[in-house]
Amino acid sequence: MPFVLQTVFALPLRALAWLGSQGTRGVAAVVFVAAAVPPLGALLRPYITEAILVLLCISFMRVDLAALYGHLRRPALIATATAWTTMGVPLIVGLIIYAAGLNDRSPGLSVALMLQSMASPMMASPALAALMGLDATLVLVTLVTSTALVPFTASLFASLFLDGMLSVTPATLGLKLLGILAASLLAATIIRWVFGAKAIQRHRKPIDGFNIIILLIFAAAIMGDVVNDLVAQPVFTIGLAALSFAIYFTLLAVTTLLFRRIGYERALALGLMVSQRNLGLMLAATAGALPPTTWLYFAMTQFPIHLAPYMLTPIARRFTARADGNGEAAAGKAT
Protein backbone atom coordinates (compact mmCIF):
# COMPACT_ATOMS: atom_id res chain seq x y z
CA MET A 1 0.00 0.00 0.00
CA PRO A 2 2.76 2.57 0.83
CA PHE A 3 4.41 1.81 -2.52
CA VAL A 4 1.08 2.34 -4.35
CA LEU A 5 0.49 5.65 -2.55
CA GLN A 6 4.04 6.75 -3.27
CA THR A 7 3.55 5.97 -6.97
CA VAL A 8 0.19 7.76 -7.09
CA PHE A 9 1.68 10.95 -5.63
CA ALA A 10 5.01 10.66 -7.49
CA LEU A 11 3.50 10.92 -10.97
CA PRO A 12 1.63 14.23 -10.41
CA LEU A 13 4.66 15.67 -8.61
CA ARG A 14 6.90 14.66 -11.50
CA ALA A 15 4.51 16.27 -13.98
CA LEU A 16 4.34 19.47 -11.92
CA ALA A 17 8.14 19.52 -11.59
CA TRP A 18 8.48 19.21 -15.37
CA LEU A 19 6.01 22.03 -15.90
CA GLY A 20 7.83 24.17 -13.34
CA SER A 21 11.14 23.54 -15.09
CA GLN A 22 9.79 25.17 -18.27
CA GLY A 23 10.30 28.59 -16.66
CA THR A 24 9.32 31.60 -18.76
CA ARG A 25 8.32 29.31 -21.67
CA GLY A 26 5.59 27.80 -19.52
CA VAL A 27 4.40 31.24 -18.41
CA ALA A 28 4.30 32.43 -22.05
CA ALA A 29 2.37 29.33 -23.17
CA VAL A 30 -0.37 30.05 -20.62
CA VAL A 31 -1.74 33.06 -22.51
CA PHE A 32 -2.04 31.19 -25.83
CA VAL A 33 -3.77 28.19 -24.26
CA ALA A 34 -6.17 30.51 -22.42
CA ALA A 35 -7.02 32.45 -25.60
CA ALA A 36 -7.31 29.33 -27.78
CA VAL A 37 -9.89 27.55 -25.60
CA PRO A 38 -12.79 29.99 -24.92
CA PRO A 39 -15.04 27.36 -23.24
CA LEU A 40 -12.33 26.96 -20.60
CA GLY A 41 -12.75 30.62 -19.68
CA ALA A 42 -16.51 30.31 -19.31
CA LEU A 43 -16.02 27.28 -17.09
CA LEU A 44 -13.37 28.88 -14.87
CA ARG A 45 -14.61 32.49 -14.56
CA PRO A 46 -16.64 31.76 -11.37
CA TYR A 47 -13.38 30.69 -9.69
CA ILE A 48 -11.31 33.77 -10.51
CA THR A 49 -11.26 35.03 -6.91
CA GLU A 50 -10.13 31.63 -5.63
CA ALA A 51 -7.34 31.53 -8.23
CA ILE A 52 -6.12 34.96 -7.11
CA LEU A 53 -6.14 33.89 -3.45
CA VAL A 54 -4.08 30.78 -4.29
CA LEU A 55 -1.55 32.81 -6.30
CA LEU A 56 -1.18 35.26 -3.42
CA CYS A 57 -0.85 32.42 -0.92
CA ILE A 58 1.89 30.71 -2.96
CA SER A 59 3.87 33.94 -3.18
CA PHE A 60 3.58 34.73 0.54
CA MET A 61 4.44 31.11 1.35
CA ARG A 62 7.75 31.38 -0.52
CA VAL A 63 8.96 34.62 1.07
CA ASP A 64 12.61 34.34 2.13
CA LEU A 65 12.38 35.95 5.58
CA ALA A 66 16.16 36.24 6.03
CA ALA A 67 16.56 38.04 2.70
CA LEU A 68 13.54 40.18 3.52
CA TYR A 69 15.06 41.37 6.81
CA GLY A 70 18.43 41.95 5.14
CA HIS A 71 16.97 44.34 2.57
CA LEU A 72 14.83 46.12 5.14
CA ARG A 73 18.03 47.15 6.93
CA ARG A 74 18.76 49.35 3.88
CA PRO A 75 15.39 51.08 3.57
CA ALA A 76 16.19 54.04 1.27
CA LEU A 77 16.04 52.10 -2.01
CA ILE A 78 13.02 50.07 -0.90
CA ALA A 79 11.16 53.21 0.20
CA THR A 80 11.90 54.99 -3.09
CA ALA A 81 10.83 52.01 -5.24
CA THR A 82 7.71 51.52 -3.13
CA ALA A 83 6.75 55.20 -3.40
CA TRP A 84 7.22 55.08 -7.18
CA THR A 85 5.03 52.02 -7.77
CA THR A 86 2.27 52.84 -5.24
CA MET A 87 2.13 56.65 -5.51
CA GLY A 88 4.06 57.88 -8.54
CA VAL A 89 2.58 55.57 -11.19
CA PRO A 90 -1.13 56.00 -10.28
CA LEU A 91 -0.73 59.76 -9.82
CA ILE A 92 0.83 60.20 -13.27
CA VAL A 93 -1.73 57.91 -14.95
CA GLY A 94 -4.60 59.66 -13.17
CA LEU A 95 -3.41 63.10 -14.26
CA ILE A 96 -3.02 61.92 -17.87
CA ILE A 97 -6.55 60.47 -17.84
CA TYR A 98 -7.93 63.71 -16.38
CA ALA A 99 -6.05 65.91 -18.88
CA ALA A 100 -7.22 63.76 -21.81
CA GLY A 101 -10.83 63.78 -20.61
CA LEU A 102 -10.90 59.99 -20.79
CA ASN A 103 -13.48 59.67 -18.01
CA ASP A 104 -16.09 61.19 -20.32
CA ARG A 105 -14.84 59.81 -23.64
CA SER A 106 -14.26 56.19 -22.57
CA PRO A 107 -15.23 55.45 -18.95
CA GLY A 108 -14.51 51.73 -19.26
CA LEU A 109 -10.95 52.32 -20.46
CA SER A 110 -10.46 55.02 -17.83
CA VAL A 111 -11.46 52.57 -15.09
CA ALA A 112 -9.15 49.91 -16.56
CA LEU A 113 -6.11 52.18 -16.69
CA MET A 114 -6.65 53.54 -13.18
CA LEU A 115 -7.19 50.09 -11.65
CA GLN A 116 -4.05 48.89 -13.44
CA SER A 117 -1.98 51.78 -12.11
CA MET A 118 -3.38 51.46 -8.56
CA ALA A 119 -2.75 47.71 -8.36
CA SER A 120 0.22 46.33 -6.49
CA PRO A 121 2.85 44.42 -8.48
CA MET A 122 2.06 40.83 -9.35
CA MET A 123 2.90 38.31 -6.65
CA ALA A 124 4.65 36.21 -9.30
CA SER A 125 7.15 39.01 -10.02
CA PRO A 126 9.93 37.66 -7.75
CA ALA A 127 9.62 34.20 -9.32
CA LEU A 128 9.75 35.68 -12.83
CA ALA A 129 12.75 37.83 -11.87
CA ALA A 130 14.53 34.72 -10.57
CA LEU A 131 13.74 32.79 -13.76
CA MET A 132 15.30 35.67 -15.73
CA GLY A 133 18.40 35.72 -13.53
CA LEU A 134 17.57 39.10 -11.94
CA ASP A 135 17.64 40.23 -8.30
CA ALA A 136 14.51 38.47 -7.03
CA THR A 137 15.09 39.50 -3.41
CA LEU A 138 14.97 43.22 -4.18
CA VAL A 139 11.74 42.63 -6.13
CA LEU A 140 10.31 40.57 -3.30
CA VAL A 141 10.96 43.14 -0.58
CA THR A 142 9.54 46.01 -2.65
CA LEU A 143 6.58 43.80 -3.55
CA VAL A 144 5.85 43.13 0.12
CA THR A 145 5.98 46.81 1.11
CA SER A 146 3.92 47.87 -1.92
CA THR A 147 1.31 45.20 -1.31
CA ALA A 148 1.01 46.24 2.34
CA LEU A 149 0.27 49.82 1.27
CA VAL A 150 -2.05 49.17 -1.68
CA PRO A 151 -5.32 48.94 0.31
CA PHE A 152 -4.72 52.51 1.46
CA THR A 153 -3.21 54.00 -1.71
CA ALA A 154 -5.82 52.35 -3.96
CA SER A 155 -8.60 53.78 -1.81
CA LEU A 156 -6.98 57.24 -2.02
CA PHE A 157 -6.58 57.26 -5.81
CA ALA A 158 -9.98 55.69 -6.40
CA SER A 159 -11.55 58.57 -4.49
CA LEU A 160 -9.47 61.10 -6.46
CA PHE A 161 -9.94 59.75 -9.99
CA LEU A 162 -12.72 57.12 -9.96
CA ASP A 163 -15.29 58.51 -7.55
CA GLY A 164 -18.69 57.11 -8.54
CA MET A 165 -17.28 55.02 -11.42
CA LEU A 166 -16.88 51.74 -9.49
CA SER A 167 -19.50 49.36 -8.11
CA VAL A 168 -17.86 49.72 -4.69
CA THR A 169 -16.89 52.83 -2.76
CA PRO A 170 -13.17 53.69 -2.43
CA ALA A 171 -13.30 52.79 1.29
CA THR A 172 -14.89 49.40 0.53
CA LEU A 173 -12.30 48.77 -2.17
CA GLY A 174 -9.52 49.35 0.36
CA LEU A 175 -11.16 47.10 2.96
CA LYS A 176 -11.69 44.29 0.44
CA LEU A 177 -8.07 44.50 -0.69
CA LEU A 178 -6.95 44.37 2.93
CA GLY A 179 -9.14 41.33 3.61
CA ILE A 180 -7.89 39.43 0.55
CA LEU A 181 -4.25 40.09 1.40
CA ALA A 182 -4.73 39.24 5.08
CA ALA A 183 -6.49 35.94 4.27
CA SER A 184 -3.73 34.93 1.82
CA LEU A 185 -0.99 35.84 4.31
CA LEU A 186 -2.68 33.86 7.09
CA ALA A 187 -3.05 30.78 4.88
CA ALA A 188 0.59 31.03 3.75
CA THR A 189 1.78 31.37 7.35
CA ILE A 190 -0.13 28.23 8.37
CA ILE A 191 1.33 26.28 5.42
CA ARG A 192 4.89 27.39 6.31
CA TRP A 193 4.29 26.42 9.95
CA VAL A 194 2.90 22.96 9.06
CA PHE A 195 5.39 21.95 6.34
CA GLY A 196 8.41 24.15 7.06
CA ALA A 197 10.42 26.48 4.83
CA LYS A 198 12.92 23.73 3.91
CA ALA A 199 10.20 21.47 2.49
CA ILE A 200 8.80 24.38 0.47
CA GLN A 201 12.26 25.11 -0.92
CA ARG A 202 12.88 21.43 -1.64
CA HIS A 203 9.68 21.19 -3.70
CA ARG A 204 10.12 24.50 -5.50
CA LYS A 205 9.83 22.95 -8.99
CA PRO A 206 6.46 21.25 -8.38
CA ILE A 207 5.26 24.46 -6.70
CA ASP A 208 6.39 26.40 -9.80
CA GLY A 209 4.39 23.97 -11.93
CA PHE A 210 1.32 24.33 -9.72
CA ASN A 211 1.72 28.11 -9.92
CA ILE A 212 1.64 27.92 -13.74
CA ILE A 213 -1.59 25.89 -13.60
CA ILE A 214 -3.21 28.52 -11.36
CA LEU A 215 -1.95 31.23 -13.74
CA LEU A 216 -3.69 29.34 -16.54
CA ILE A 217 -6.94 29.24 -14.57
CA PHE A 218 -6.76 33.00 -13.99
CA ALA A 219 -5.75 33.82 -17.56
CA ALA A 220 -8.48 31.58 -19.01
CA ALA A 221 -11.11 33.14 -16.73
CA ILE A 222 -10.18 36.66 -17.76
CA MET A 223 -9.64 35.88 -21.47
CA GLY A 224 -12.70 33.74 -22.13
CA ASP A 225 -14.35 36.24 -24.52
CA VAL A 226 -11.23 37.47 -26.35
CA VAL A 227 -11.84 35.49 -29.54
CA ASN A 228 -15.46 36.69 -29.76
CA ASP A 229 -14.36 40.29 -29.16
CA LEU A 230 -11.68 39.98 -31.81
CA VAL A 231 -14.22 38.78 -34.37
CA ALA A 232 -16.87 41.33 -33.39
CA GLN A 233 -14.61 44.40 -33.11
CA PRO A 234 -11.15 43.55 -34.46
CA VAL A 235 -9.76 47.09 -34.73
CA PHE A 236 -10.79 48.04 -31.18
CA THR A 237 -9.50 44.78 -29.70
CA ILE A 238 -6.14 45.02 -31.49
CA GLY A 239 -5.92 48.66 -30.43
CA LEU A 240 -6.37 47.70 -26.77
CA ALA A 241 -3.72 45.00 -27.17
CA ALA A 242 -1.28 47.54 -28.63
CA LEU A 243 -2.07 49.94 -25.78
CA SER A 244 -1.43 47.24 -23.19
CA PHE A 245 1.99 46.48 -24.69
CA ALA A 246 2.81 50.20 -24.90
CA ILE A 247 1.94 50.80 -21.25
CA TYR A 248 3.81 47.69 -20.11
CA PHE A 249 7.05 48.59 -21.86
CA THR A 250 6.74 52.29 -20.98
CA LEU A 251 6.54 51.44 -17.27
CA LEU A 252 9.43 49.00 -17.70
CA ALA A 253 11.66 51.50 -19.53
CA VAL A 254 10.87 54.52 -17.32
CA THR A 255 11.45 52.55 -14.11
CA THR A 256 14.72 51.08 -15.41
CA LEU A 257 15.97 54.54 -16.35
CA LEU A 258 14.86 56.10 -13.05
CA PHE A 259 16.78 53.50 -11.04
CA ARG A 260 19.74 53.04 -13.40
CA ARG A 261 22.20 54.34 -10.77
CA ILE A 262 21.80 51.14 -8.76
CA GLY A 263 22.92 49.17 -11.83
CA TYR A 264 20.91 48.18 -14.88
CA GLU A 265 20.47 44.59 -13.72
CA ARG A 266 18.73 45.63 -10.49
CA ALA A 267 16.94 48.51 -12.20
CA LEU A 268 15.53 46.09 -14.79
CA ALA A 269 14.31 43.85 -11.97
CA LEU A 270 12.39 46.81 -10.51
CA GLY A 271 11.12 47.71 -13.98
CA LEU A 272 9.78 44.19 -14.43
CA MET A 273 8.02 44.41 -11.06
CA VAL A 274 6.42 47.80 -11.73
CA SER A 275 5.15 46.79 -15.18
CA GLN A 276 3.63 43.53 -13.87
CA ARG A 277 0.50 44.88 -12.17
CA ASN A 278 -1.74 42.58 -10.12
CA LEU A 279 -5.02 43.14 -11.96
CA GLY A 280 -6.45 39.99 -10.44
CA LEU A 281 -6.38 41.62 -7.03
CA MET A 282 -8.51 44.48 -8.37
CA LEU A 283 -10.92 42.04 -10.03
CA ALA A 284 -11.35 40.21 -6.73
CA ALA A 285 -11.86 43.43 -4.78
CA THR A 286 -14.53 44.68 -7.22
CA ALA A 287 -16.10 41.21 -7.54
CA GLY A 288 -15.64 41.51 -11.31
CA ALA A 289 -18.41 44.11 -11.56
CA LEU A 290 -16.64 46.12 -14.24
CA PRO A 291 -17.55 47.55 -17.68
CA PRO A 292 -16.99 45.28 -20.74
CA THR A 293 -14.17 47.53 -22.01
CA THR A 294 -12.38 47.16 -18.68
CA TRP A 295 -12.63 43.37 -18.88
CA LEU A 296 -11.37 43.37 -22.47
CA TYR A 297 -8.41 45.61 -21.63
CA PHE A 298 -7.53 43.40 -18.65
CA ALA A 299 -7.63 40.39 -20.99
CA MET A 300 -5.26 42.12 -23.42
CA THR A 301 -2.78 42.89 -20.64
CA GLN A 302 -2.25 39.16 -20.19
CA PHE A 303 -0.24 39.08 -23.43
CA PRO A 304 2.60 41.41 -22.34
CA ILE A 305 2.48 40.08 -18.76
CA HIS A 306 3.08 36.50 -19.90
CA LEU A 307 5.22 37.11 -22.99
CA ALA A 308 7.54 39.89 -21.81
CA PRO A 309 9.57 37.78 -19.32
CA TYR A 310 10.37 35.31 -22.10
CA MET A 311 11.20 38.13 -24.52
CA LEU A 312 13.36 40.00 -21.98
CA THR A 313 15.35 37.04 -20.65
CA PRO A 314 18.28 37.46 -23.13
CA ILE A 315 18.57 41.17 -22.16
CA ALA A 316 18.41 40.32 -18.46
CA ARG A 317 21.16 37.71 -18.84
CA ARG A 318 23.33 40.24 -20.67
CA PHE A 319 22.92 42.75 -17.83
CA THR A 320 23.63 40.03 -15.26
CA ALA A 321 26.75 38.87 -17.10
CA ARG A 322 27.97 42.47 -17.34
CA ALA A 323 27.36 43.01 -13.61
CA ASP A 324 29.21 39.79 -12.77
CA GLY A 325 32.08 40.82 -15.03
CA ASN A 326 32.35 44.21 -13.39
CA GLY A 327 32.34 42.57 -9.99
CA GLU A 328 35.14 40.20 -10.95
CA ALA A 329 37.15 43.07 -12.44
CA ALA A 330 36.75 45.07 -9.24
CA ALA A 331 37.81 42.10 -7.18
CA GLY A 332 40.87 41.64 -9.40
CA LYS A 333 41.93 45.27 -8.91
CA ALA A 334 41.46 44.95 -5.17
CA THR A 335 43.84 42.01 -5.05
Kindly describe this structure.
By secondary structure, this protein is mainly α. It has one domain: Na+/H+ antiporter like fold. It has 18 helices and no strands. It has helices spanning about 1-20, 25-35, 40-45, 50-60, 65-70, 75-100, 100-105, 105-120, 125-130, 135-160, 170-195, 195-200, 205-220, 225-230, 235-260, 265-275, 280-285, 290-335. It starts with a helix and ends with a helix. Residues about 1-5 and about 330-335 have low confidence and may be disordered.
Keywords:
Na+/H+ antiporter like fold; disordered N terminus; disordered C terminus; mainly alpha; 335 residues
How are the SSEs ordered, and which strands pair?
Layout: H1 2-21, H2 24-36, H3 38-44, H4 48-61, H5 65-72, H6 75-100, H7 102-105, H8 107-118, H9 125-131, H10 136-161, H11 170-195, H12 197-202, H13 204-222, H14 226-232, H15 234-258, H16 264-275, H17 279-285, H18 292-334
Helix pairs in contact: 1-13, 2-13, 2-18, 3-13, 4-11, 4-13, 5-10, 6-8, 6-10, 8-18, 9-10, 10-11, 10-16, 11-17, 14-15, 15-16, 15-18, 16-18
